[in-house]
Amino acid sequence: MKKFMKIAALTLAAVMMLACFAGCGKTDTSDKVYKIASDNAFPPFEYLDADGKTYVGIDMDILAAVAEDQGFQYEVANVGFDPAIGQVQAGQADAMIAGMTITAKRQETFDFSDGYFEDGQSLIVAKDSTITSFEDLAGKTVAVKAGTMGLEYADSIKAQYGFETSTFEGSVEMYRAVVNGTCVACFEDYSVGAYAIKSGDLALKTVTEIGVINPAPYGFAAKKGTNAELIDMFNKGLANIKANGKYDEILAKYGM
């Protein structure tokens, strides 16, 4: 009996040792709290609720649903789009979710998840504006938001159409510049601009003759070569919430 017990004990020890070796190289995220950077005023993707304290929006709800599905913990820092990029690049945040368009240029410095929403650019003008084309922008100033696809697109065509740009930190500041006449137009993500016009008391409109420019997917992003397990969990969770209907519920909640 003693001999049997000794063999059993040795066998158990061997099994535990093998399990330990088998687990080597795997990342244990059970106690880790990921820091996620985000924008601070980009409705309907992230914005302050009526209480002025809680950030809500499509990005916030998708992140919460994915984290719940995959069982990881996180905290969000709503610092603004350009600062969010800076925090991820500096290693001060593990990843960001902020309506960030996946592009070949950004893939040089970021690892992206699968796309979770597709959008493009739109040109927004004052409600009484007569601008109907890029040619009408000649000799005028157009507002753009720092670090965004709108800025990149404006920079790519401004020499061709003869307009200047003025850069702002947030969407609200851009809209205000167009409403008060400091700028004649601004470039904004189509869904974001449409949501702002529909839900806010803004004397703005989209230039429908131009329509949606360069549609592309948004992605959850981490600094290139880091946090692969987080990107993987996001992809798995995103697939699951699309399959179980939660994703569609989130979009419907914000009128998308």
Describe what is shown at a glance.
This protein is 39% helix and 23% strand. The protein contains eight helices and 13 strands.
**Class derived from helix and strand content:** alpha/beta
CATH class of the largest domain: Alpha Beta
Determine the number of helices (DSSP H or I, runs of at least 4 residues): 8
Largest sheet: 6 strands, mixed
What value does the Rg take, in angstroms?
A: 23 Å
Query: How big a fraction of the residues is strand?
Result: 15-25%
List the helices and strands in order: HEEEHEHEEEEHEHEHEEEHH
Q: What's the total number of strands?
A: 13
CATH homologous superfamily placement of the largest domain: Periplasmic binding protein-like II
* Overall domain count: 2
The chain-level mean pLDDT equals: 89
Distance between the termini: 70 Å
Question: What keyword list fits this structure?
Answer:
2 domains; 3-stranded parallel sheet; disordered N terminus; alpha/beta; D-Maltodextrin-Binding Protein, domain 2; 13 strands; 256 residues; 6-stranded mixed sheet
Description:
There is one protein chain. Strand 8, helix 4 and strand 9 form a beta-alpha-beta unit. This protein has helices at 2-23, 58-70, 81-89, 149-161, 171-179, 190-199, 228-243, 246-253; strands spanning 33-38, 47-48, 55-56, 73-78, 95-96, 110-112, 117-126, 141-145, 164-168, 185-189, 204-206, 213-218, 221-223. Helix 2 crosses helix 7 and helix 2 packs antiparallel against helix 8 (246-253). Residues 1-27 have low confidence and may be disordered. The relative contact order is 0.18. It has two domains: 33-116 and 219-253, Periplasmic binding protein-like II (D-Maltodextrin-Binding Protein, domain 2, 3-Layer(aba) Sandwich); 119-215, D-Maltodextrin-Binding Protein, domain 2. The chain has 256 residues and is an alpha/beta fold. The protein is built from eight helices and 13 strands.
